[in-house]
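Notebook entry, structure prediction.
Reason for the run: the old model in the group folder had no record of what sequence produced it. Starting over properly, with the input documented here first.
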Amino acid sequence: MAAVLEPYIYEGGIHKHSLLVELLEDLGGYIVQKTPAATEVTLNMLIPKRDVHLVEELAKKLLGKLTKAPLTGVEIAVVTPTLAYHHLPHSACDVAEHFRRDGANTNMIGLARGMGRRVALSSDYERKLINEHDVAVFTFGTFSDCIINKKTKLFEGVRIPIIVTGGPDLNTEDVPGADAYVGNIGRISHRMRKGQEIESLENMNRIVGEIVDQMRENLSRDPVSVLPARVMKEIQEQIPDINYVLTPAPLTLQLDGIRVKLPFDKYHEAVENIELDESTVLSDVANITPSKMKDYILVKIKRKSDTGFVI
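New structure, fully documented this time:
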């Protein structure tokens, strides 16, 4: 049986952090993302549950900080109705930033026609782009009537879990089509730095974390044929060009797949032919298609019920 992997973030000095990387590889864990900054480094990691204490001990010796990061390996679409100043205020940036603090990768998407009661809708392209993510977080404003009666049109065609943020204090059942609603995050013209504002953001992360935990539980009943983190490691080893991509998170993990930030036409055959073991290549266990984001490659891994095996 495969080891259960726990998501953590390590923050500490860049000096000797390679010892932590080596330990993680020996334990069978994975580095999801590495972010060096001057003399500091941040590591998003997946650690085998039974070995977390070993990593904690080494992190303490290195004078670093190891914290649970429940959203590691999750890609979140932060969706605003339009790119206009009244729909893309500071709060949308704070929402995206707060998710990243818990390990998530976020993409901000501004819709083309989210304004006006009669014309509020999303295009087929926008819906497909949103559906490439694990979770969609729609950031709305301060008017209850607008959120309840107008903006819910934007949910049409979105198949992934939908979380709504807004200013009013509403219940989830008040917002048709939403899987969860988080209040006290509305349209503001300043950064969210006050105590109550930070509490609202923490509450948002907690709610999204609970939804992600439920998604992981559902996934465990019919697991993916190979761990996305394993695919990420094989791509790094078998397609060296990925190491020269300057885009943030060139390999972006998802709960059931991975976004490869390489041109589809040039690299899709190399990705399809990634060797997982002696008799299996990636195309045997995954659907590999062009992403709606730029010209990237989207890998969605098939479930055990589709392939009949788990690597």
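Summary: DSSP finds ten helices and 15 strands in the chain.
The old model has been moved to the deprecated folder.
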